[in-house]
């Protein structure tokens, strides 16, 4: 016989806590203001959060964010809001923090904040979210102590609970386990481009994140990020999936609306400037007083003091955000997707003079890596690679009337790059001059067994490096520096612990540090905007190697290979000397030089894929260019090269 156990409390008394939680979740007001109005009335931004943006929240500080922020209101039909921006845009403070505070104050739903890693999340939690709670009147809603354990369990670094059942979860894209069994109405994907394509083989990360909203009818997904490579950029894709809005401002002189942009070579309008001579160094620098904007409508000039006013006028209806998807090849994914592009020229904290200085720093687009950084971080758009398939026949036909082994006029310093194979060493030798213009001046292959340093291949390389001279403007010039690939060690076949073993290349270089460096192709250096990056090595006969941003070097090669003359141009000889007879450079060399193509190499991952069996001419050239960058040749102005040439003549 079963004994029925009655509850210790009457049913009515048991339901009282549930009813109280339901009552807490009911908004206190029928009217819910816009997120912008709530921030103006309630939010104070401390100086430590934003040194340029502190004080009572003012919509006129960054008026371009009024419309995107108000998309977070429950009456707005938008569900996906993508923000592709420049640096120094005030987007995270205004949009991400503002949306989370607004949603919590009016009990609209729980918030999930995702960022690159938990370290960044920890910093955001303590440096931004805790002050937001304290300074925006949300602290009274916070549940700091557990009634059961009497411990602080509802206000931790990564998790916070508020009245009405509202919770904040702060985590990273790599910690998708934190998302399981949780539902959120507000998702903030900060630095969206830092998210990996996939985590733990669980499929597309975007789908997993959006899946946290499937249990609710009302939700908002806010994506904020600077972009990256257009082929893989998440925020660029999200922008294209929306209605692709751009911010149009009125000219202060004629009232014509336009998107602010940098003046192109073939344009009459845009942000432009002049240069002047630095009296101390003689270098050409920005003339600050010349920075101006030329209107596309009236072609008159106006200056940066007008920027704030025209942005405010635009936000108040004289222009503003306008969809541009009809002029694009991409249509919005749905009517509920909104997307915004906010470039650096409308940033409240990025001056036009600073923009112009950064552009000068790219050498007017000649320094490809600096240009990439400029376009992504300053202009705010994605990096559009200009990589097309090149014809080896066209490259062969472009070869010039000089013989391999000679240095044409313009080439002044000599650099080499060596690729190590199981049965040979291959070496490309390039001369470089002003503007990083380059000439192929030799190509050597030494066959043997590079697995041992006693092999003739290494002796031949040593002899060539220290004894071979090139005729440059009448002087005999040695090779300045030679970069040797250490990515594959023939002695050890690159085991997992290859750095700690007696690496053949390291041992060879250790006795020749005056001329040789160890390099390793590292694909694309995502952590830094460098062509080459010094890396310390432990338990090895040399103390460092250089990781090479081989992806960007190959892109530079493909971008500039068709330029006939001038900065970054590359020249190839048509003939080689063999036994006193001139012969054409082999087809194999030109095929090998164009042996790789930039394409998708795995799901969501772009890279350089070999399309011809031999890619050594391209790899050796990549290492030779890396050696030039290690030596700082890309920094040298024209007067350096003039002085170097004069030194050789004397």
Describe this structure as you would to a colleague:
- The chain has a domain at 399-649: Nucleotidyltransferase, domain 5.
- 27% of the residues lie in helices and 24% in strands.
- The protein is built from 17 helices and 32 strands.
- Strands 3, 4, 5, 6, 7, 8, 9, 10, 16 and 17 form a 10-stranded mixed beta sheet that branches.
- Residues 494-501 have low confidence and may be disordered.
Secondary-structure class:
alpha/beta
Rg from alpha-carbon coordinates: 30 Å
Q: Let me know the number of strands.
A: 32
Q: Give the CATH architecture of the domain at 399-649.
A: 2-Layer Sandwich
Proportion of residues in helical segments: 25-40%
Indicate the overall shape. globular
Q: How many helical stretches?
A: 17
CATH topology of the domain at 399-649: Nucleotidyltransferase, domain 5
Measure the end-to-end span. 114 Å
Q: Would you tell me the overall average pLDDT?
A: 87
Largest sheet at a glance? 10 strands, mixed
